[in-house]
Design goal:
Layout (H helix, E strand, L loop, with lengths): L3 E3 L4 E3 L13 H5 L18 E3 L2 E3 L3 E3 L14 H12 L4 E8 L19 H12 L4 E7 L33 E2 L13 E2 L2 H21 L3 E6 L4 H6 L14 H4 L1 H13 L6 E6 L10 H14 L3 E5 L17 H10 L4 E4 L6 H9 L5 E4 L1 H5 L3 H9 L22
Parallel strand pairs: 5-6, 5-14, 6-7, 7-10, 8-9, 10-11, 11-12, 12-13, 13-14
Antiparallel strand pairs: 1-2, 3-4
Helix pairs in contact: 2-3, 3-4, 4-7, 8-9, 10-12
């Protein structure tokens, strides 16, 4: 029984090759109508492996970090194990664990995950180990909510006008802070302007979180500097009105982020890739722009960042976003084409196989991050392969459910 692993604690099937890996169909599969014939040559880049320092993603369809609001005191639960494992089981090349707070007050809501204490490592490690059984790279996004922290979980949105989580609801009204004492909007708490001591504490918390992420076994680390959370709040002139060395000029506004990146790169193993998610533009006049992102990306490349995860907006309620399929792909394209050596990831309303194939095939991005479509369809990788006529390995347990290709009439 060489295709099983068994000991007193666990028993599981070895997946070889791992789910989501492009494989040539057998003649029997072709005869039975499960495949038209051999996979296209060359194979579309979407299903080609991607080298990431000392690691390799088996395909370029990745699960984007998405808050689940299902933790207590930052600890993982059985929900997180089943939630993230389902994507690995079904062939995602990389699964990114949701924004995880580097400090208790760094969480977005009282029910967000945390990585501010060593006790959090065990639960996170359990998720990582399970994903690895299916040949999927395990990533985690670490962040700080800043002035958008201490809010109610998404499930409660629409039930009241304010998003503020009170102390009785597990919030931290007296410990919400940001670069400046200006609220995101009337529904959020007004933050306190951070002291230099608090800035130093946050910087060290990111570094400590990276050490814990490594101990948990994560292959990829992503720094959250997007959507109006703390690190991006420092970047944007719309939310940063400081007059010290952390405000004013581009150099000053990017100072904290670069200190965080450089500090993390010193403790995060050289063999492990480091990503950074950024809001490429505020979508507000006078705010952070794509030109700023390109300049910063060149600096980040020299600081040891391997991939820019190109999102946008979330920092100012005046934003005007042109919501259309693939509307943010342009940002990943500009980073990839204008910052040689930096990888880029495309996000934003990517839900179709041909759409995903074209983004990567046309060198608009190196990989795609998919969020809501994975929630609707955890087998998105299998669905894309089916749509494109690519034969991929299914996990052993689900093999009987394999879809026949679009070319078959059997």
């Amino acid at each position: 029984m060489s295709n099983f692993v068994s000991d007193l604690r666990e028993f599981y099937q070895i997946q070889d090759p791992s789910p989501g890996t492009a494989i040539e169909p057998s003649q029997l599969e072709i005869d039975q109508g499960f495949a038209k014939g051999p996979n296209p040559s060359p194979l579309p880049k979407l299903f080609q492996p991607l080298k990431l320092r000392g690691f390799e993603a088996k395909n370029r369809i990745w699960v984007s970090p998405m808050c689940m609001y299902s933790a207590q005191d930052g600890f993982t639960t059985d929900f997180h194990l089943s939630h993230y494992s389902q994507f690995a089981i079904r062939g995602a090349g990389l699964v990114m664990v949701e924004a995880t707070g580097v400090l208790p007050e760094g969480r977005i809501s009282p029910n967000c995950l945390g990585i501010w204490q060593d006790e959090h490592v065990e639960g996170l490690s359990r998720i990582v180990n399970h994903m690895h059984k299916y040949g999927t790279l395990a990533g985690i996004q670490i962040g700080h909510g800043g002035r958008k922290g201490s809010t109610i979980p998404l499930q409660l949105y629409g039930t009241r006008s304010s998003l503020r989580a009170s102390k009785e609801e597990g919030g931290w009204p007296e410990n919400v802070y940001g670069p400046s004492a200006e609220a995101y909007d009337d529904a959020h708490y007004k933050p306190k302007e951070m002291t230099i001591e608090q800035i130093n504490k946050v910087r060290q918390a990111f570094v400590d979180a990276a050490i814990r992420a490594d101990k948990a076994g994560f292959d990829v680390l992503e720094i959250h500097s997007a959507h109006g959370y703390l690190l991006f709040e420092f970047l944007s002139p719309l939310s940063n009105h400081r007059t010290d060395e952390y405000g004013g000029s581009f150099e000053n506004r990017t100072r904290l982020l670069l200190e965080v990146v450089r500090g993390i790169r010193q403790v995060w193993p050289h063999s492990k890739p480091l990503f950074l998610r950024i809001s490429s533009t505020d979508w507000v006049e006078g705010g952070w722009t794509m030109d700023d992102t390109k300049v910063l990306s060149k600096i980040l490349l020299n600081a040891g960042v391997d991939l820019i995860d190109c999102s946008s907006a979330g920092n100012d309620p005046r934003q005007k976003i042109p919501l259309t399929p693939g509307y943010q792909v342009q940002f990943a394209q500009q980073v990839k084409q204008e910052v040689p050596g930096m990888l880029s990831g495309a996000v934003g309303l990517i839900s179709k196989g041909e759409q995903a194939r074209q983004i990567v095939e046309d060198d608009l991005a190196d990989a795609i991050f998919v969020g809501r479509e994975f929630l609707r369809n955890p087998s998105f990788v299998y669905s894309v392969a089916h749509e494109l006529g690519i034969n991929v390995k299914w996990n052993n347990q689900y093999e009987r459910g394999r879809l026949k290709t679009k070319y078959s009439f059997v």
